[in-house]
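Appendix B, record 7
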Amino acid sequence: MNKENMIAIPADPDDPEDFPVSVAGLERARIGRRFRILRHRLGLSQEEFARIYGIPASSLRQYEIGRYMPPPAVRAYLKVIEAEPEVVKRVIAS
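Structure tokens (predicted):
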């Protein structure tokens, strides 16, 4: 069984608009939240963050809403930006 088929949060049976959340969906949401929290901490819009750090804005939007899991290299890059945002910004700009 893969993570898309494993249910992390079952749907609320009393809420017709609710739906189950898979383990993979929960992981995507957590990564998206990390991007959003970092972006807010830096005081940047999605477009600004994307331009400064060289991530396509369309990809950033998809990551933040949890539609797609960023590839491993982007997840590693996120860790570097979280640790040293100004250093990364200077390196990318040069």
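Remarks on this record: The chain has five helices and two strands. The mean pLDDT is 96.
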